[in-house]
What does this fold into?
Amino acid sequence: MSETSLVGVAEENVLIQVGACSVNLLPHLGGKIASIRVNGRELLQSPLAPMRPRTPTMPFDASDASGWDECLPSVAECTVPTATGPAQVPDHGDLWRVAWQPLAVDVGGATLRAKCFSLPLVLERNLKLTATNSGEPAGWHLNLGYKLTNTSDTPVPWSWAAHPLFTAEPGDRVVLPASIRSLRVEGSGGGRLGNNGDTVSWPVANLVAGGQSDLSIAQSADSAIGDKLFTARLTAEQNWCALERPSAGVRIRMRFDPAVTPYLGLWLCHGGWPDRPGPKQTCVAMEPATAPVDSLAQSGPWSLVLAPGESCFWPMHVYIEII
It folds into this structure.
C-alpha cells in the first residue's frame, strides 16, 4: 500500500496510484476527478452519458453527471449583481465546463488551475494522494488544497461547493456528527420531504405523505429518491462526515474547515434524478460548501465577496479507510 506511482500523464488524462488506490483526473473536462478506485472497485458515480465537451450554457443533466466536479461560483443557475453589471452564472457553475491547466504533476499528486467565465475568478486545486500513516485506519488520504483569486479590479461575489458523487448501494450509511439533528431542505423530488426552506430531522425524517424515512441509509434505485439538504452553520467540532460502504469494504470520511467552508450539503440520490428517461444517479454527495443554499443570488449572512486581487484558501481531506 505504500508504493506510489504516476501511472499516466497526458494532456487529457492524469492517473495517480498509491498501492491499490488510484485517482483519475481529466483536466480537459472540467478538471473532473473521474474515478477513485480501491482494489479495483469504483467509488464514484459512473457516467450517465458519454463524456464530451461541454458548452457554456448546457444544463448539468445534459452531461455525463458523474465523478467529482467543483461548483463555482454557484451551484444553481442564477443572475447576480456585480460592480460591472449583472452576471449570468450557469447550472452547477463554470468550472465543470472548461479545460483546466495542469500547473504541476508529480508522483502522487497534481495541481490544476481553471478560470471562470461568468465572473473574474481563478481556482487552483492541489491534490495529493498518500497511504495513511501508521496508527491511523489502514487506507489512503486524498489531501486537497484550494486557492481562489479575484483577478479583477472590482469586488466579486462567489460561493463554492465540492461536488463528489460517491456511488452508493442499498444499506450504505451516511454518518454525521451526533450534534447534527436537523437539516434544511433545498429540494426534494416529488416534495416527499417538503419544500425549499423546510426543516427535517436527521437521521429519521417525517415524510409529507406520512410515515418516516431514515435518510442516512441508502435505498434501492427504484425508490426514486432525490433529496438535497443542508446543515446549519457548523462548529469547529462538526468538521466531518462519512459514508460507510460495507459492500465495498470502505469508509469514506471527509474532513473540512468550518472557518472557511462552514456548511455541508447532502445530495441523496437513489434513482431519483435526472428527471428524464434514461440512466439515473445512485449516489451520495457530501458537499462541504461556503453557503447553505445552492444559488449565489440568494444572499444572507453566508454571502462572500472577494476584494480586487484578493485570494482565499481552504483545505479538504478525504480518508478512504478499509473496514
The chain has no helices and 26 strands. The mean pLDDT is 95. The first strand starts at residue 4 and ends at 10.
